[in-house]
Structure formats: structure tokens, C-alpha cells
Design brief:
- The chain has 235 residues and is mainly alpha-helical.
- The chain has one domain (8-233).
- 69% of the residues lie in helices and 6% in strands.
- It contains eight helices and two strands; from the N terminus they run ββαααααααα.
- It has helices at residues 30-55, 64-84, 88-107, 120-142, 145-148, 157-165, 167-192, 201-233; strands spanning 15-21, 24-29.
- Strands 1-2 form a two-stranded antiparallel sheet.
- α4 packs antiparallel against α7 (167-192).
- The longest helix has 33 residues, at 201-233.
- The protein is globular.
- It starts with 14 loop residues before the first strand and ends with a helix.
């Protein structure tokens, strides 16, 4: 099931369909569907905001949706500039996209979905994308020195290499662990409480586990991404 149920099983990854393609079985789970829903919602929201902004005249008063979008963009711009300085312009689009996507995935539990970021198959690719971007920009900026710096001092070379390879694991496990823990706790609460009680009381817990914690985790992964990138390209 895609929607959260009042039982603990509703918070587990659900197998929805098996598709057989050229002898290979592809499993469609609730994570795929929920991620697809979040992605489609983001695309539609971006198109709607873009259309509203283009229709605005100089003397027009922007609507609530446009004001919220402008506030978010300004916040993300300031956050990126505050940490990355002159390099912010190159990475603000990626950081902003990462923040919005992770945020919506984290808070999707409020709307009855199982948070896609509670599945390691979602958080690991996010960590790998950041890792590739970090290494690419490090090599682009420092050339061969990007690799020789890992050997300084020589005795710490193995530790330095492990530290580099641990970046995607650090990002992905941190996000996955925090979101998954909230998902499991909410599943236990729904499973232990009588059905009549679950109508109101867990709503307050969703505010913390989905909304508050979701915003914090989206902020943290973006900050760490900027720190890792800035460490490689800083002058």
C-alpha cells in the first residue's frame, strides 16, 4: 500500500508489482511510486510558479504561492552564498534542487505517503551524485594535486582515502537513519494505539518526525554537500 495505514505494516516497503522484462524481474515498490508522486508534484509546482511569475506585471501584487517561492529561493541563495562565497553561483541550482526534493520526500508522510528517503535505495544515489560532483570539481580545480593531497602525510594515506570514499555513505546513511527512525516510531505508535485514538494523537507527532525533523535533515544534507564541495575548490 502506498498510503500510510494505522498498522505498523503500512510503514514498511510494500511490493506492488513484478514486471518481467527479457528474463529479468523488476520489482515496483511503494518507494518507486511515492518518489514518482513527489517528482511529478515538483515538476507541476515549478511549471505553475513559472507561469504565474511570467504573468506578473511590475505593478501587480504577487500571490501567496509566488511569495512563498521567492522567499524559499532567497533563503537558499543566501544559504549558499554564506558558505560558498563567490562559488555559490555555480552550485546554487543543485543545492536548491537537493533541498526541495529531500524536503518534500521527508514531509510526504504528512500527506499519507511513505517517505521515499526512508528507503536507502533513494538516499544512496543522492550521496553518490554529491560524491561524483565533489570529485569532479576537485579534479577540475586541482588536477593531479587532487590525488596527491590524499597522500599528505604519507602515513595517513589509507585514512585519507577511506575518508574520501566515506562521503556518500556518510550523507546517505545519516539521512536514511534519521528519516527511517521516525517512520518506524510512527509505525509502532499506529500499531500499538487503538484505531480510534490514532485519528488525532499521532498528528502531533507527525509535526515533529515529518515536518520539523524533515526540514532539519534537508538543511543538514545541503550544508554538508556545500562543505564537501567547498573544501575541494576553495582557494
Amino acid at each position: 500500500m502506498i498510503l500510510a495505514e494505522s498498522s505498523g505494516s503500512g510503514y514498511m516497503i510494500q511490493l506492488l508489482k513484478e514486471i518481467h522484462i527479457f528474463g529479468t524481474t523488476v520489482y515496483i515498490t511503494s518507494t518507486h511510486v511515492c518518489t514518482f508522486i513527489v517528482s511529478i508534484f515538483l515538476i507541476i509546482l515549478a511549471l505553475v510558479i513559472n507561469r504565474k511569475v511570467k504573468k506578473l506585471e511590475v505593478d501587480d501584487t504577487p500571490g501567496t504561492l509566488v511569495v512563498l517561492a521567492e522567499t524559499l529561493v532567497e533563503f537558499l541563495d543566501n544559504m549558499t552564498k554564506g558558505l560558498m562565497g563567490n562559488n555559490a553561483k555555480r552550485f546554487v541550482n543543485y543545492v536548491s534542487t537537493l533541498f526541495v526534493f529531500v524536503l518534500l520526500c521527508n514531509i510526504s508522510g504528512i500527506f499519507g505517503l511513505r517517505a521515499p528517503t526512508a528507503d536507502y535505495e533513494v538516499t544512496l544515489p543522492l550521496g553518490l551524485i554529491t560524491f561524483v560532483m565533489v570529485q569532479y570539481n576537485g579534479i577540475k580545480k586541482n588536477k593531479f594535486k587532487h590525488f596527491t593531497d590524499m597522500c599528505k602525510p604519507a602515513v595517513l594515506t589509507p585514512i585519507n582515502i577511506i575518508g574520501e570514499l566515506a562521503v556518500p555513505l556518510s550523507l546517505s546513511i545519516r539521512l536514511f537513519g534519521n528519516v527511517m527512525s521516525g517512520t518506524v516510531l510512527m509505525g509502532l505508535i499506529y500499531g500499538l494505539l487503538p484505531r480510534l485514538v490514532t485519528i488525532g494523537i499521532p498528528a502531533f507527532l507527525h509535526i515533529y518526525f515529518d515536518l520539523f525533523s524533515g526540514v532539519i535533515q534537508a538543511y543538514v544534507i545541503c550544508m554538508l554537500t556545500m562543505v564537501y564541495v567547498n573544501d575541494k575548490i576553495a582557494d
